[in-house]
Amino acid sequence: MLYEAGVIAWFRGRHDEALARYDEGLALVQASDARHARGALLYVRAILLQERGDLDAAFDHYVRALELIRVSGNLHLEASALYYFAGAHLERGQRDDAARLLERALVMFRDLEILATRR
């Protein structure tokens, strides 16, 4: 719920409120084994930090989020996070790193598409 509340605040241009909702959600799940929730909250927080121009903090959040998401096994969320992380690399002028991340994301999205068509 706090994830979505943050997204709504973000879309309304209330960035500080969005960050507060994400922080509140992180505080709730920090002590649990909810890797997926922690990863998702860190990931969306990274996107917002990147949008605000705080690339160093965004990079840190992306790295931590991807570690948690990878362990949770959510390929869709991981591929999406890789896509956005690639954008952060492009903002830093790191084209080769961005290309590698985008390629990994594309492979994951294709794998997900294959899995979906088998059902």
UniProtKB/TrEMBL annotation:
Q: Which domain of life is it from?
A: Bacteria
Question: For this protein, what is any one GO molecular function term?
Answer: identical protein binding
Q: Which Pfam families match?
A: TPR_12 (PF13424), TPR_4 (PF07721)
Protein name according to UniProt: Tetratricopeptide repeat protein
Organism, per UniProt?
Answer: Nannocystis pusilla
